Structures are given as C-alpha cells and as structure tokens.
Amino acid sequence: MVKSTQIGPNGPWSAMAYAILEEWDAEWAAFCRAMSTNAWTSGTLTPRFVELVAVALCTACTNLDRAGVRQHIRAALGAGATRNEILTVIKMGSVMAIHSCSLAAPILREEAGSEALAASVRPVGETPACDRMKAIGQWNTAWDPFFQLDPSWTDEFMATGAGIYGAGVFSPKETELLSIAFDASFTHMYAPGTRRHIKGALAAGASVSEIMDVLKISVGYGVAACNLAVPILAEEIELLERTRR
C-alpha cells in the first residue's frame, strides 16, 4: 500500500488516492491532475473562493461527500474564509432541495386534474416572506406551482431561504457563482437554475472566465471517483495477494 503523501495543490484530490494512482499510471495521473486542479492554479478566482465553491460541491444535498467537505472546509479556513461564509454555503446546500418541488409540483398539478386540485385547495392566509420577495422582484415563477398547492409551507421555505440570501454574507456576484456550482454540479444538473444564475452572475459583473472556472471546479470534482475507489482497489489487491501467499 502506498502511504499518503502531500501533493500541492491538492485541488479536489485525496493525496492518498493520487499517490496510488501516480504509481500505477503516472501519465494519466499527470494529465488528470493538470485538468482537475486548473481552477486552483489559474488565478482567475481567489484561493478562498475556489475552496468555497469546492465546499459547495461537496456539501450539496445531492452529493454529501464527507471527506471532501472536511478537506475543503479546512482549506477554505486556511485561505481566509470565515465561519459565517462557510456556514452560509452549507445552508445554501440544504435549501437547494427545493428543486424537488420545482420539478415535481408542475407534474403533480398536471396529473391530478382540476377536480383533485380543487378538493386539495388550502387557505392562503398570510404569506409575508413570499410577498416580500415578490415586492422586491426576487420571486421566481417556477415557484408558482408549489405556492398554489401549499402557500403556507412555501412561505415557510421562503423565509428560510431569505435568511440565507438576504444576509449579505457574500456579494451578489459571489452568491450567483456559488449558485451556479450547486445547479451545474454533475450530481444535480438543474438546467433552469443554471441558466438563471449564469444570467445573474453576468449581470452582477462576473466574467466569462470566472463562470468557466466555477464549471471547471465542478468537472474536476469527477476525481471523487478516484478518491473513493482507488484506495479500495489497492486494499483489495493487497488482501488478495496476502491470501495467495
């Protein structure tokens, strides 16, 4: 078994997985490392923000990569990120689960039909969080179907989300770039949100290169497959060889 070594910058890599892979296939490992760590070395995004994007990718409710979360929280803190910034990213990773409703609520309305929908109508009551978002032009019409199905719960959700996005922890540009990472991630691939947040990032002053580097971090995180499986393969080969002795 190859012992863990430090490679810098690690980027999305587990040092142990990379060391094993480098021993087995040095050429492919070098190509893959250059590609997957490009956003860490390009200088387009600050080291702090690169690591925050990596935290977002790992902590997203569609991914939940425990080892990656710890690795990139540690690196983000080392690069100057604050507890509040990292906690905000974690909160963002939680509320992205709303896309379950964005996807399914319109389908539910279509399939249920008018009679079933009429029978399930809930009293609207007061919806201050939704009203506030509509008043400031932040309401997304993709939320209309589940608002119509359950306005009270939708308002509870919007109050939760507004507390994150309205806190001013990140600049509008950084908020949009992080949102792109969540939606474009290969574990999510939510096209409507990706387009909306790319438009928002451009409007907030992000460059094409900055957005592209967020996407490169997302692609580079494909090496999570190596981080997970290469050490297991090495362990199983070592176990098999021991049983044959």
TrEMBL record:
One Pfam family matching this protein: CMD
Domain Carboxymuconolactone decarboxylase-like: 27-96, 153-234
Sorted UniProt keywords: Oxidoreductase, Peroxidase
InterPro entries: AhpD-like, CMD-like
PANTHER family in the cross-refs: ALKYL HYDROPEROXIDE REDUCTASE AHPD, BLR3452 PROTEIN
GO terms of molecular function: peroxiredoxin activity
Secretion signal, residue range per the UniProt entry: none
Protein name as catalogued: Uncharacterized conserved protein YurZ, alkylhydroperoxidase/carboxymuconolactone decarboxylase family
